Amino acid sequence: MGVIPVLEYHLIGERESRWSRNWERFARDLELLHARGYRPITVRQLVERRIDVAPGLSPVVITFDDASPGQFRYIAEGDSLRVDPRSAVGIWSAFAARNPEWKGRGVFCVLSGADSGHAFFGDKGIQGQRTAWRFPKLRRLVADGHELCNHTLWHANLGRMSAAGVQEQVARAQLAVDSAVPGYQMRTLALPLGIWPQDRSLLTRGSWVDARTKREVRYSIDAVLMVAGGPSRSPHDSAFDPLKIPRVQVFGDELEKLLDQLDRRGSRYVAGPRAR
Ligand SMILES: [Zn+2]
Fold first, then answer.
1. What is the pTM of this model?
2. How remote is the CA of residue 248 from the centroid of ligand 1, in Å?
3. Which of 145, 153, 148 is nearest to 102 (CA)?
4. 120 Cα–ligand 1 center, Å
5. What CATH number has the domain spanning 6-157+230-265?
């Protein structure tokens, strides 16, 4: 019944600031979590109560918002592509090679049509990223076991949009992901700016018709991530609300402080022996 940290990263790069994690520090965050007995699970696993970490260990959810190149950057080498070892996916993969329980299990809250390099991890040459690499990146994430999460079409302030606009924002992101990974349904949504639409029910279920193709795109969301609020309750706690999952932004020493606090209070979720 303890609490579970749902961590939130934005930019991964050289800089260290409120919205940017230095890539070496990100690598150290993974080491720290591992050393302190945490193992990653996805939001899917959290809301479906499939917390499969070994007895005595604790789950952590690691989310990445806004689909910037620093999270997943390719480097072209002749005819082949290499994942930049300084991008989050490169760091994660290297860590997973040494710690197999880290394979997959990140949660990437993506924007499909944002500008300034935030459309599926960069396009149009931003940070060397080609537009044609966007879909292969999504396919690679899914193949590796990561979860894709809907962060809307271009990070709209949903509180200022019409009902039709809200549904278009969510549905078009879903359509774009389906184009890259046929059949993939995003079931988790990260609220842009933490702002709810006036009609909250539009986040969980809705549809939008593509005027050009007349195709109707439906979506169905059953987990909503907020931008702040501290660690999450256990999904076994009756007060756990999957449509209001709080998160903790990682910057400065916030992660160390959080882990220390959970241990001091004895409030962290620790997996018990598995029932057989
Ligand atoms: Zn965002």
1. 0.96
2. 14
3. 145
4. 13
5. 3.20.20
- The rounded Å distance from CA 65 to ligand 1 centre is 5
The tens digit of pLDDT for each residue in 101-120 reads 999 999 999 999 888 888 89
The 3-class secondary structure across the chain, one letter per residue, is: CCEECEEEECEEECCCECCEEEHHHHHHHHHHHHHCCEEECCHHHHHCCCCCCCCCCEEEEEEEECCCCCCCCEEEECCEEEECCCCHHHHHHHHHHHCHHHCCCEEEEECCCCCCCCCCCCCCCHHHCCHHHHHHHHHHHHHCCCEEEECCCCCCCHHHCCHHHHHHHHHHHHHHHHHHCCCCCCCEEECHHHCCCCCCHHHHEEEEECCCCCCEEEEECCEEEEEEECCECCCCCCCCCCCCEEEEECCCCHHHHHHHHHHHHCCECCCCCCCC
Q: What distance in Å separates the CA atoms of residue 226 and residue 137, rounded to the nearest whole number?
A: 25
Task: Measure 43 CA to ligand 1 centroid, in angstroms.
Answer: 17
Q: Distance from the CA of 272 to the center of ligand 1, in angstroms?
A: 34
Q: What is the pLDDT of residues 72-91, one digit of tens each?
A: 999 999 889 999 999 999 99
CA of 227 to the centre of ligand 1 (A): 8
Pairing of strands 223-229, 216-220: unpaired
Q: How many CB atoms sit inside 10 A of residue 264's CB?
A: 8
Taking a 5 Å cut-off on Cβ, the residues next to ion ligand 1 are 65-66
